[in-house]
Amino acid sequence: MNMQNKVVIISGASRGIGRATALLLAQHGAKVVATARNADELKTLETEGNGQIVAVPGDVANEADMTAVVQTALDKFGHLDIVINNAGFGIFKNVDEITIDEWDSVMATNVKGTFVLTKAALPSLKAQGNGHIVVVASDVAKRTFAGGSLYTASKYAQEAFMGALRKEVRSFGIKVTGVYSGLVDSHFHAKGHGHETSKGYLQSEDMADSMLFILSRPAHVVIDEFMVHPLEQEY
């Protein structure tokens, strides 16, 4: 699983799956450009990266911010290999309780953010004739539940975006992988990381291991979809 000198952009890298993935890929030799809105947490991550991680704070839904992230990768390392669209969050309410601002906020990060970062990276990936775009979605990109209309709609949108993107870029040698996780013990959940009720969930490090496996396949192999759950979760 050699990632030596692979250049990787990871959004939502300040905590959870993004943070764990940044650290693991760096340990395996990748050069990681980590972005998120929390500059302080990103700086801590950069320090822990032992020179392999570069922190670039920014809003994933902001075109200028994501253009700057991609340009940083190109300026510092000369090329770009992998983009991991990991930034995301959820609000869980019944439809008539969701505010317009809440709807717009989730869609901006989960859907628009995936589009904006991917769009910023595509010219470089197309020009070099290879690359890998990963979208960390959720198993709810394929199922729904009461109280999940907003979050599941955003994940179904990511699923559709990936499907079309995959057809557009395969001829350029660019891989597209959708990662569909079940329950993960992270700050994403209302009760927070490490709560007693989530002790059997996947850990962020489990998801990072999955990411490393996906990204280190031979050049001729693409994992289009990768779904992973904790054993205790029914699907």
TrEMBL record:
- Which Gene Ontology CC terms are recorded? membrane
Identify the InterPro entries for this entry: KR_dom (IPR057326), NAD(P)-bd_dom_sf (IPR036291), SDR_fam (IPR002347)
Q: Kindly state which keywords UniProt assigns to this record, in alphabetical order.
A: Oxidoreductase
Question: What positions does the domain Ketoreductase occupy?
Answer: 6-180
Name a GO molecular-function annotation: oxidoreductase activity, acting on the CH-OH group of donors, NAD or NADP as acceptor
Q: Which CDD domains match?
A: SDR_c (cd05233)
Q: Would the keyword Chloroplast be found if you checked this record's keyword annotation?
A: no
In which family does this protein belong, per the annotation?
Answer: Belongs to the short-chain dehydrogenases/reductases (SDR) family.
UniProt name for this protein: SDR family oxidoreductase
